[in-house]
Amino acid sequence: MTSIGTIIKGIIIPHRKGNIRFKPQFFVLEDAHIKGFLLGKDYQRMYDIDIYNSKNRHITIGTNKEKKFSLDIYQISSHDPLKELLNEFRDRQFSTTLTSTIKT
After folding, report:
1. What angle do CA 44, 20, 75 make, to 5 degrees?
2. Source organism's superkingdom (predicted)?
């Protein structure tokens, strides 16, 4: 795998005593397909985060081990302005083409 570069992406983990916010650096690899990310021990120790890889992956924060935060990767979404613009352009272009075809 070839390294393409790096990106910095903000992550927010909700917590009753205040959200945990950090901006880790991710390495982008060509043709890499991932289902998650690694959180360094420095962040885990700083925020007292424990990661559990059982049937349902989750984390706990602090001493409250009953409050679990899901790590279901399919719930994570990212706001991508470029993708939104491309989708808007595609929809507009196709709808214009279809409309002019129907009117003819």
Report:
1. 90
2. Eukaryota
